[in-house]
Amino acid sequence: MNRNSEQRQSVNIQQRILTFVTRSNWVLLVSVSLLGLLAASPPFARGIIFGGLIVTINFHLLAKTLKKALNPQQLTSPNVVLVKYYIRFIISGVIIFLLIQQHVVNPIGLFIGLSVVVASITLATMIELKNLFFKEAV
Question: CB–CB of 43/103 below 8 Å?
Fold first, then answer.
């Protein structure tokens, strides 16, 4: 396999992972939220919902910022990307603080909700590793 082919394959895998994670964030958020609404107390379910929304929206905004910043026609300064990241981080921190301080959410439910993107990334990685190993075994 030549170098260009390997690079295209790598970009293809990265795009496939990003698409999977982006979609599975919402699927996991809805699934875990429904489970929380059906099986847990209202503050616990609200924690899952708010935590999942915070992390999923942040993930989408970060992806949008990076896609725009890495556009070859108009490269954005890394400082602009960092400033946007830290602004989102501070806003998220304030929201999380207020949700816990005002007893709107259960902190454990919030933690579970905030884990949605990590779960999506882990799931995507496991699927790609499975595909890689089974492809090589054939």
Answer: yes
